Amino acid sequence: MTSHASAAFVALAFAVGTADAQQSTSPARRDSTRRDSLARAGSLEGVIVRAVRANGNAPIAQTTITTRTIERRSFAQDVPMMLQGTTPSLTAHAESGSNWGYSYLRLRGIDQSRINLSLDGIPLNDPEDQVFYFANLADLGASMQSVQVQRGAGTTGTGTASFAGSINFETKRVLGVPRQAAAEIQVGSFGAQRLMLEANSGALPHGFASSVRISALRSNSFRRNAGVEGISGLAQLAWLGTRDVVKLMALSGRLRDTLSYLAVPVQDLQRDRRINPLTPEEQDRFSQHLLALSHTRQLGTGVQYASTLYRIAARGNYDVRFDSTTIGNYGLDFNWYGLTSAVNVDRGALKLTAGLNANTYARDHFSFIRPDLQRSVYLNTGHKQDAALFTKVAYAHGPVTWFGDLQVRRAFFRYAPDAAAGFSGDEPSIAWTFLNPKVGVTYAARSNVDLFASIGRTTREPTRSDVFAGNDDVTRDVLNDLGGLQRVRPEQVTNTETGVRLRSGTMQLELNLFRMDFRNDIARIGALSPLGVELRSNVGKSLRQGVEFDLRTRPTSSLVLTTVGAISRNRIAGFTDSSGTTPVIRRNVPPLLSPAVTGTQRIDWRAARWLDAGLEARYQGLSYLRNDGDRTLVLPAYWMLDAMVRVPLRQHDITVRATNLGNSQQFGSGYATGGVPNYFILAPRSVFVTVRLATPRASRD
Fold first, then answer.
1. What is the DSSP code (8-state) at residue 527?
2. Phi and psi dihedrals of 25, rounded to 5?
C-alpha cells in the first residue's frame, strides 16, 4: 500500500499545483458571463446521463440517491453494500464476510446479471455473461455524484436489457466545481486500511477544468484467507466552449484477493463462522480500465446532442485447487469498444430523446495447470456485437403527461473454440433481435400529487454461461449434448407499475404496485459449476408482484426520517427441476433468494453544527435456497443495525461508522447442495474511522 500511496500523493500534488499556478496567472472574473457559463456547463455535462435516466414524473418505480446520501453512507465498501437500504426491493451480500471483496445485489429477488448497469451512460455489464464486478474498481462510491435505481422494466438504457431494473451511476462533475484538494484516511475492523486522495482544479484558462481521485485499500476480511487489496483511480479533463463540452475520462482499478466464493454448510458454521473452504493458494488477480471521450453540443434552444466513444478492457486470472497436488489457473482478457449517442429535445409540452448504442467485444478464455503457465489447457474466444436504437417521448396536455419508449436491439454471439475442441474450423454463432416497447401516463391530480401507471415489455438473451451450462470451454460433443447454442431460450418480462407520488414541504412519498410476468424465466437451479458459476436454465412462467414504498419526512429542520420497504408474492408456475439425479416437476413454488418482505428505517439527525448522526435498521425476510419451496432449505430472516457519527471541523471532518451493531449471526446469501443449506455469513460487528482533510474551497468565480 505504501507504493500506491506514494503514487497517489505525486498525482495529487501535480493536479493541485497545476491548478494553483494557472489560476494565479489568470484569475477568473466575477461577472454574469461566468455565471452563465457555469449554468451551461451543468446543463451540457449531464446530457447522456439524462438520456438514459427517468425524469422525476416518469411513470416508473425509481429512486435517485443524492451526493449527500452517498457521502453519508460510503466508506469505500463495495457499491452493492453501499446501496442496500437506499431503495425498496434491493438486497446485497458479500462473499468475504466483510464489506469488501466480491459482492452482489438483487432487485425484486432477481440477480445482478439481469440488471442494467451504466456509468455516465456507458454500459458496464459484460456482454457475454452480463455481469459486472464492482470489486475491480475499489472505492468507486468516492467518485459518484448520484445514482438512479429504476425497478422493473424502467426506461431504455444502453447495453444489456433492463430486466429486473437498472442502476445508472453519474460521476462527479468537473466543470463549475470549486478548486479543492482532499485526503481521507481510514482504519477499521479486520485490519481495514484506506487512503483516498482527490483534487479539483477549478476553472483553468481557456475553458478547461480537471479532477483526479486515487484510492488504495486493503482488508483481511472476517473469513479466513479472504483478504482484499485494491487500488483505483479516476481522472477527468473537460473543456467548456460557447456551445460545447468535451470531456476525457479514465477510470482504472486493480484487485487482488484470496477467493471465498464457496458458501459453508450450516453445521460447520455453527462450530466456526470464519471457515473458508478455499485455500490460501486460490487467489484472484484482475484489472479493469475504462477510457471515454464525450462531446456535447447545444444545437439550439432546447436541443442538445451528445456522443461518447468508449473502450473497456479487463484482464486477470484466478486459481482453483482440484486436489493436494493440482491447481488450475483460469484467465480472461477482453476488449470492448462502443459508441453511445443521444439527442435531447425539450420544447415545453414535448420532451423527446432519441439515441443509439453500438459496441463490439471479444474475450479470450484460457486455462493452465500450475506451475506450467506456457502451455494452455485450452484457449477459446467469445465475440459479441450489440446494436440498439431507442426513442423516448413525453407529451404533456393539461394535467396529463403521456410517455412512450421503444427500443430495437440486435445482439450477435460467435464462439471461436479451442483448436483441439473438434469443431474442424467451424465457429458456432447465434443472433437475437428484440423489440422492447413501454408506455405510461402520469396524472397531476393536485400540485403535489401525481398518479402514474405504465406497462412495458423487455426480452433478453441468455448469457454465455447459461448456454454452456457453466462450462468455460466446450468441445463439439459437449455442445451437441447441451443442445447447441439454443439450449437456453431468451426470457421475457411484461411489467406493469401503478403508483402515487406525494410531495410537501416536509414529506415525500412514492407508493407503487408492481406485477412482473415472466416467460421462459432464466433462473438459478440452486447449484454451482466446478468453477463456482451459478447454474441457470429456463423455468417457464413465473410471477412477481407486490407493493413498494419510499417515504421521507422532515419533522424538524435537523431531523430526516426515511422508510423504504417492499412486500411481495413471488411464484414459479411450474418447471422440471433437473438439478438432482431424477427430474422432478415443481408447481407454484417460490423462486430462490426472493424475500417476501424487506424494509429499512433510517434516522438522520443534524444535532448541532459540530455533530451529524445517523441510525439505520434493515430487515430482510425469509427466502428459499432452491426453487422448490423446501422449508428446510431457507435463508433465515434477519435484522441489521448500523450507525454513523460525523464531527465536522470546518472543511475537515471525522466520521465513525459501525455496522451490525447487534452482531447478528445470520447469513447474507447462500445455496443448497445435497439437501444441506450452505451460507455466506453476514459481516460481524465492525467499526471504521475516517478522517477527511481538505483545503478550503476556492470561489466558483
1. E
2. -85, -15
| Amino acid 2: pLDDT | 43
pTM here? 0.92
Cβ atoms of 64 and 87 closer than 8 Å:
no
For residues 682 and 675, the answer to whether their CB atoms sit within 8 Å is: no
Averaged confidence pLDDT in the chain: 91
Identify the bridge partners of residue 116 per DSSP, sorted by sequence position: 166
Helix extents (H) in 361-407 = none
DSSP state letter for 596: S
pLDDT digits (tens, 9 = 90+) for 230-288: 999 999 999 999 999 999 999 999 999 999 999 999 999 999 999 999 999 999 999 99
User: Which residues make Cβ contacts (< 8 Å) with residue 373, sequence separation at least 6?
Assistant: 329
Spatial contact of 536 and 129, defined as CB atoms under 8 Å apart: no
Instruction: Give me the pLDDT at residue 39, please.
Output: 55
Integer Cα distance of 107 and 136 in angstroms: 21
Say whether pLDDT at 55 is over 90.
no
* Grid coordinates of 135: 470489486
Cα dist. 690→265, 548, 654 in Å? Answer: 36, 34, 6
Count of CA atoms in the C-beta half-sphere (13 A) of 571: 9
Provide Rg for the chain, Cα atoms: 25
Helix H or strand E segment including 415: strand 400-416
- HEC states along 107-137? ECCECHHHEEEEECCEECCCCCCCCCCHHHC
Q: Which residues contact 673 (CB under 8 A, 6 or more apart)?
A: 526, 527, 528
Percent residues over pLDDT 70 in the chain = 92
Residue 517: CB atoms within 10 A of its CB come to 17
SS3 state of residue 496: strand
Can you say whether the dihedral through the CA atoms of 619, 625, 630, 634 is positive or negative? negative
Quick one: residue 101, left, alpha or beta (phi over 0 = left, psi -120 to 50 = alpha)? left
Residue type, 634: V
Q: How far apart are CA 458 and CA 131, in angstroms?
A: 18
**Strands 165-171 and 115-119, how do they pair?**
parallel
Q: Sign of dihedral through CA atoms 618, 621, 626, 632?
A: positive
pLDDT of residue 577: 75
Q: pLDDT tens digits for 143-192? A: 999 999 999 998 888 888 889 999 999 999 999 899 999 999 999 999 99
Per the DSSP assignment, residues forming a β-bridge with 390 are 355, 407
Distance CA 502, CA 508 (A): 6
Q: Which residue has the cell 435517485?
A: 64
Residue 518: pLDDT over 90: yes
Tell me if 48 sits within 8 A of 297, measured CB to CB.
no
Structural contact between residues 562 and 88, judged by C-beta atoms closer than 8 angstroms: no
In this predicted structure, the answer to whether residue 72 has a pLDDT above a threshold of 80 is: yes
For 468-508, how does the pLDDT look when each residue is reduced to its tens digit (9 = 90+)?
988 999 999 999 988 899 989 999 999 999 999 999 989 99
In one letter, which amino acid is 508? Q
The three three-digit cell numbers of residue 479, written as one number: 455442445
93 touches 669 (CB < 8 A): yes
SS3 698: coil
* Distance of alpha carbon 148 from alpha carbon 49, whole angstroms: 10
Query: Which single residue is written with the C-alpha cell 480472461?
Result: 332
Instruction: Give the pLDDT band of residue 393 (cuts 50, 70, 90).
Output: very high
- The grid coordinates of residue 652 equal 475537515
